[in-house]
Every structure is written in structure tokens, then in C-alpha cells.
Amino acid sequence: MQLKELSSDNLFVKKLETVAEEIKEDESWRDAYMQSLLKERDIFKRGVEQERIKVVKNLLSMGLSVEDVSEGMELSLKEVAELKRKLDQPI
User: Fold this and answer.
1) DSSP classification of residue 74
2) Are the C-beta atoms of 60 and 83 separated by less than 8 Å?
3) Which residue in 16, 39, 58, 80 has the most C-beta neighbors within 10 A?
4) At what angle do helices 27-61 and 77-88 cross, to 10 degrees?
């Protein structure tokens, strides 16, 4: 017996299947869903980048050279030097 056959007697499952089919056919819902996924991805990327910056700043403040931080974090010397400049600026 297949799952579909088992679930066909359950009113809740029938309603759920109906709603799922309606959503699949609704282009505006799909667009909104895709926009939501893209937004979540961008937020995640920003968080990862902020954490990388924090690690670079911590390594620099521990006295590691720009070259060592660049190599260890796989960033360009220019990127690390810019972060070091920001770190050295008074608040």
C-alpha cells in the first residue's frame, strides 16, 4: 500500500495536499518564497563576513602580522591592511 492510499482517508492530509497544490500553482507565492530565500541567504552571508572581520581584528590585536593574518584567513594583504587601519583608528 502506498502512502497516498493510506493518507487519502485522512481529512487533514487531503486538505494539506489541496493547499500544497494551490501553492505550487500560485506564481506570486513562488516569487515571494524565492525572495524570502534570497533575503535569508544575504543575511547569512553578511553574518559570515562580520564574523570573519571580527576574527581578523582579533588576530591583528593579538600581534599577528598582516601577512600572517592574510595567509591564515585567505584574504588579500590589502583587505587585511584596511581592517588594520580601521582597528588602529581612535574611536
Assistant:
1) T
2) yes
3) 80
4) 70
For residues 5 and 26, give the distance between their C-alpha atoms in angstroms, rounded to a whole number.
Answer: 26
Q: How many residues does the chain have?
A: 91
Tell me the one-letter amino acid at 14: K
pTM: 0.58
- Tell me the DSSP string of 2-61: -HHHHHTT-HHHHHHHHHHHHHHH-HHHHHHHHHHHHHHHHHHHHHHHHHHHHHHHHHHH
Residue whose cell numbers read 598582516: 66
pLDDT in tens, 62-79: 999 999 999 999 999 999
Contact 8, 14 (CB under 8 A): yes
The burial class, CB within 10 Å (0-12 / 13-18 / 19+), for 83 is buried
